[in-house]
Design goal:
The complex is a heterodimer of chains A (about 290) and B (about 80). By secondary structure, chain A is of the alpha/beta class. Chain A contains twelve helices and ten strands. In chain A, about 40% of the residues are buried. Chain B is of the alpha+beta class and about 80 residues long. Chain B has one domain: Ribosomal Protein S5, domain 2. Helices cover about 40% and strands about 30% of the residues of chain B. In chain B, helix 1 crosses helix 2. The chains are: A alpha/beta (about 290), B alpha+beta (about 80). Chains A and B meet through helix 1 and helix 2 of A and helix 2 of B.
Chain lengths: ~290, ~80
């Protein structure tokens, strides 16, 4: 469970070595778009060295590799797959590419004697992968699905706008697919790093469509993303009261009870527990009740 | 064989320039030379040992890179020289 996924350029030593100070829940070290074509070799070596010696603690660590349609992808995977990496972010991911990646990872895990299974975060950024998204979401290894709105807009030939009305459908479709498969629905980055109000609006909009996390392209976006995608103190307090009342009702063998004049049944209790799991994960529970 | 160059002069990075030679010859210019010259030299020598390279001219222009960055940039420069 994460609220923010921060992209870190894969050939930038200062950003890489400080990646864990920005407070993101997850880090995506980028070997694809953030690295110039003539620097791919150097970035791969740098990132492999960093992961082997100085992997950040307390955060999920992903690496965005180059596309499987390039000769770079296998070199990237050879270099970075290991105990230090939680998952691989695959650009332009469709069903066939994901099946291929899963096979490559399976073989690398065996070759390298890894005890863990490397996760996959596919980026849905083509029309083809969007229409496959329900099938994609059911694949094993997936932690979540990330919407890539910039490439999707190029593929669909629509203009990107700050209001984001053109990506309501992909957002909602990805969110439904992810929720059905019980994986993370991760929203596309907001590309204006100097517009915190616009970012907040964008987060609220994507959250209203079912997204539960957002990618970030600058550390200054983390605070706003966390503010929107964390349960509010009011919601946490409500959930704690529901939990307490549910326990009391359970002792009296009551399946349904009322709180503040409103009926409370299983779906509401489940919702409250979900909020409390998120609050606990993000360290937001009041101390005496944590 | 052309020289191999890798890295940048940004903070926390280093540029390595390597050329074929009959023996090892390492020159280091570092912003933290007074404190870390020996450690930088050790990283370079160890990396060359691992690669079984006995002859190479190495110029390291360091802007405060950590050990794994120095190693990665040196290997990248050597691979580019050999490409």
């Amino acid at each position: 469970m994460a609220r923010s996924y921060l992209f870190i350029p894969g050939n930038h030593p200062a950003m890489i070595q400080n990646a864990d100070v920005f407070g993101a829940d997850a880090l995506i070290f980028d070997l694809e778009d953030a690295v110039a074509a003539h620097e791919k070799d150097a970035a791969r070596l740098l990132l492999a060295g960093f992961l082997a010696k100085a992997r950040p603690q307390g955060v999920r660590v992903y690496v965005r590799i180059n596309g499987l349609d390039t000769p770079l992808a296998c070199k990237d995977l050879e270099a970075v797959v290991g105990d230090a990496v939680d998952g691989i972010v695959l650009p332009k991911a469709g069903m066939s590419e994901l099946m291929e990646l899963s096979t490559i990872l399976h073989n690398l895990e065996a070759q390298k004697g890894l005890a863990k299974k490397i996760a996959i975060l596919p980026i849905v950024e083509t029309a083809k992968s969007l229409v496959e998204v329900e099938e994609i979401a059911k694949l094993s290894r997936l932690d979540g699905i990330l919407l890539g709105a910039e490439d999707l807009s190029a593929d669909m030939e629509f203009e990107r706008t700050k209001a984001g009305t053109e990506i309501e459908y992909p957002r909602a479709r990805i969110a439904f697919a992810c929720k059905a498969a019980r994986i993370e629905a991760i929203d596309t980055p907001f590309t204006d790093t100097n517009d915190p109000d616009g970012l907040r609006e964008d987060c609220l909009h994507s959250q209203s469509l079912g997204m539960n996390a957002k990618a970030a392209i600058h550390p200054n976006q983390i605070e706003t993303i966390h503010a929107v995608f964390s349960p509010s103190p009011k919601r946490i307090e409500w959930a704690l009261r529901i939990r307490a009342a549910a326990r009391k009702a359970g002792e009296q063998n009551l399946g349904v009870f009322s709180l503040d004049g409103k009926m409370v049944d299983k779906p509401i209790i489940d919702r409250a527990e979900k909020i409390l799991r998120a609050a606990e994960r993000f360290g937001l529970l009041p101390e005496e009740r944590a | 064989m052309k020289p191999g160059i890798a890295g940048t002069l940004e903070s926390n990075d280093a540029i390595f320039t390597v050329r074929p030679a009959s023996t090892r010859h390492v020159v280091i210019h570092s912003v933290v030379d007074a404190f870390y010259h020996d450690q930088i030299a050790q990283v370079i020598e160890t990396t060359l040992d691992e690669l079984a390279i006995t002859g190479l001219d190495v110029l390291c222009e360091d802007k405060g890179a950590l050990d794994y960055t120095l190693r990665a940039r040196l290997i990248a420069a050597i691979q580019r020289m050999e490409a």
